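User: quick one, sequence for these tokens?
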């Protein structure tokens, strides 16, 4: 049975679009590679995502049935949902005012355990191999048409 755990950081002070760019970099990677990617990503949100990923790893380790091998964990899902926006007013020329939206996001990272690969003992390659040096009938037919 594969273990699945998640962690969420709510009300992070960034836009969901900016966070989604960095989350797309780690989606589907194993957790060690994802942590290394986040460490060298030159975006401010990468540090917050790293904290969420480490929390998801810790949540998986504390679940019953976890094998204990962190190397088998991978990022199965990573997404950013839009949070509430704080609305502020910025003075503009001629007595007007511009509205400023200070956006927030909810970051969610899910990690899952890769299933162990079970290989049957003595299982041979079932597909017959083509003899080397011979062309398939279709490519030989194309060659004769090209000569004509």
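Assistant:
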């Amino acid at each position: 049975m594969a273990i699945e755990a998640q962690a969420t950081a709510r009300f992070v002070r960034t836009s969901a679009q900016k966070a989604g760019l960095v989350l797309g970099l780690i989606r589907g990677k194993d957790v060690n590679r994802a942590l290394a990617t986040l460490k060298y990503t030159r975006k401010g949100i990468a540090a917050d995502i790293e904290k969420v990923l480490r929390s998801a790893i810790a949540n998986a380790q504390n679940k019953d049935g976890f094998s204990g091998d962190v190397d088998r964990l991978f990022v199965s899902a990573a997404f950013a949902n839009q949070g509430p926006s704080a609305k502020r007013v910025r003075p503009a020329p001629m007595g007007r005012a511009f509205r400023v939206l200070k956006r927030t996001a909810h970051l969610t990272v899910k990690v899952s355990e890769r299933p162990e690969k079970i290989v049957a003992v003595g299982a041979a390659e079932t597909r017959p191999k083509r003899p080397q040096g011979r062309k398939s009938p279709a490519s030989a037919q194309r060659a004769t048409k090209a000569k004509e």
